[in-house]
């Protein structure tokens, strides 16, 4: 994993500077909100900022387009990759012009109408986080993690008072769905209570991804390495709390992504029909797109640049 650069201004929560409303408005992933905020400051066409990136959390509602031009674009704030993709689809189906792309830290190629294309731009690693005084070790194997997330009594004990609080981020989180795929569990089984040791709430409040303040000495939760690095360098707001990243299969979580076992591309999701249409084509599509040219910004926020940056082949049927 690439180390984050120190001294970069903490990313703004909403589009910062002028114009207040951008040609390309996007919502979704908590994991990539900060890097997209950073890119929104430097990606310009004819000197004008064109990317608007709205955070996963904050005020209950957001307005993505100038009400004087389009008064339909006040909406509930989408939190997470799934919620962002749904909001984009809803906007496209309504043809209201309110959203133009979605941030996603997971790949979901189920049928969508209209069709969507997942355009990679960065690579992230995901590991687990615990506290310094945790009852869990700082080094585990992937097999160990699978056993923990399958509620194996040898690791977590038995209910109703499990000896480990096995946590997942909030519903709709891309990190949640990615982590589930890595440890071999499904969303349907989690929702059905097949794994009773797993919770996505702490004291009744949903677990927000990459917020280490949720951890106590009995807890474990997945954590984006890019987010951890960006928070540790103060590039973005630091909400790690006492969280420390765990080592999986003897791979340290602070080396280049190419050396870490659990890694993923992160994406911007655009309408497939817009691949060849500016400004989507200019900003997102192809290795020479404006985003792909900003590898320094991508690295600053803890991500490695995707070798497939700008690829437009990952499309929903």
Low-confidence stretches: 1-10
Assign the CATH superfamily of the largest domain.
Periplasmic binding protein-like II
Question: What's the domain count?
Answer: 2
Q: Write the CATH fold name of the largest domain.
A: D-Maltodextrin-Binding Protein, domain 2
What is the count of β-strands? 18
Strand content: 15-25%
What is the CATH architecture term of the largest domain? 3-Layer(aba) Sandwich
Shape: globular
The CATH class of the largest domain, by name, is Alpha Beta
* Residues in helices, as a percent range: 10-25%
Order of helices and strands: EHEEEEEHEEEHHEHHEEEEHEEEHHE
Distance between the termini: 33 Å
Number of helices: 9
What structural class do you assign from the helix and strand content? alpha/beta
Please state the average pLDDT score.
93
Radius of gyration, whole Å: 19 Å
What about the largest sheet?
10 strands, mixed
Describe this structure in words.
This protein is an alpha/beta fold. It folds into two domains: 24-122 and 265-305, 3-Layer(aba) Sandwich (D-Maltodextrin-Binding Protein, domain 2); 124-259, 3-Layer(aba) Sandwich (D-Maltodextrin-Binding Protein, domain 2). Helices cover 21% and strands 22% of the residues. The protein contains nine helices and 18 strands. It has helices spanning 33-40, 81-94, 142-149, 153-156, 174-183, 187-192, 225-232, 280-283, 295-300; strands spanning 24-28, 44-45, 48-49, 51-53, 61-63, 74-76, 101-104, 116-130, 139-140, 165-167, 198-199, 201-202, 205-206, 219-224, 244-245, 247-248, 263-271, 304-305. Strands 1, 4, 7, 8, 10, 11, 14, 15, 17 and 18 form a ten-stranded mixed sheet that branches. A two-stranded antiparallel ribbon has the order 2-3. A two-stranded antiparallel sheet has the order 5-6. A hairpin with a 2-residue loop joins strand 12 (201-202) and strand 13. It is globular. The two termini are 33 Å apart. Residues 1-10 have low confidence and may be disordered. Residues 73-186 form the PBP domain. This is PBP domain-containing protein.
